[in-house]
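Researcher: Let's do a round of design. I'm pasting the structure tokens now; please hold your answer until I've finished.
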């Protein structure tokens, strides 16, 4: 009997800690089950947008950036042509349109720049254009705005005319530059198309370079850097997604 008691006693000592361990695991799993259920419940919820949080977008912005690289090499070409030519052209077209109530403000910026290099001609610029247009309008009738317009056009780098004897400066930054200010009516049947008609428009031609001014280039008097003109103006703008 003593042997039997001695055998059962350690079994009881082993079972009691095991029961305690099982109870601890069960109590730990119970809050985890609640947490998982809560996460599932929250995950199934949908986000509702508060009506008071909605707002009308007054600005529409965007643009287009482009870069084109072309290279040609010819060898023993019977029809003739450049042995080597390389051209690089880039463009940037940005816009920012504002509209709120009867007021609208349209802004566009266009910049083009290109260079070409050939075996016979060497390196030269083949495109350089900077064009900024800003137009403010106030609606006076459906599709018709009373508007004012500002336009600035020039180039950034020097341009040349090439002859057999070399090259001569033909343009530079602000040589020429054109500034247009006008007041008129803007017909705008859609957000993508508009026609501006101004019976009263002022245009200022600027030739900053002294050598070009001395020649009377671009309509300025010899030695003068500015030329003012007044007349009518017509401009059409078209914006289309590509």
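Researcher: That's everything. Go ahead.
Model: Designed sequence:
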């Amino acid at each position: 009997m003593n042997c039997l008691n001695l055998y059962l006693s350690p079994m009881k000592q082993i079972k009691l800690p095991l029961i305690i361990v099982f109870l601890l695991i069960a109590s730990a799993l119970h809050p985890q089950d609640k947490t998982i259920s809560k996460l599932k419940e929250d995950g199934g919820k949908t986000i509702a947008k508060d009506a008071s949080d909605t707002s009308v977008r007054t600005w529409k912005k965007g643009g287009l950036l482009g870069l084109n690289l072309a290279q040609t090499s010819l060898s023993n070409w019977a029809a003739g042509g450049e042995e080597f030519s390389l051209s690089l052209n880039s463009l940037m077209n940005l816009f920012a349109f504002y509209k709120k109530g009867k007021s609208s403000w349209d802004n566009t910026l266009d910049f083009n720049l290109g260079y070409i290099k050939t075996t016979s001609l060497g390196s030269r610029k083949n495109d350089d254009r900077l064009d900024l247009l800003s137009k403010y309008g106030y609606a006076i009738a459906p599709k018709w705005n009373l508007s004012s317009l500002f336009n600035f056009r020039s180039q950034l780098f020097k341009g040349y005319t090439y002859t057999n004897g070399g090259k001569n400066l033909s343009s530079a930054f602000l040589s020429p530059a054109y500034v247009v200010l006008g007041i008129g009516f803007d017909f705008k049947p859609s957000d993508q198309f508009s026609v501006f008609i101004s019976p009263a428009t002022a245009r200022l031609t600027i030739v900053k370079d002294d050598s070009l001014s001395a020649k009377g280039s671009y309509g300025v008097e010899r030695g003068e850097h500015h030329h003012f003109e007044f007349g009518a103006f017509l401009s059409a703008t078209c914006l289309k997604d590509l």
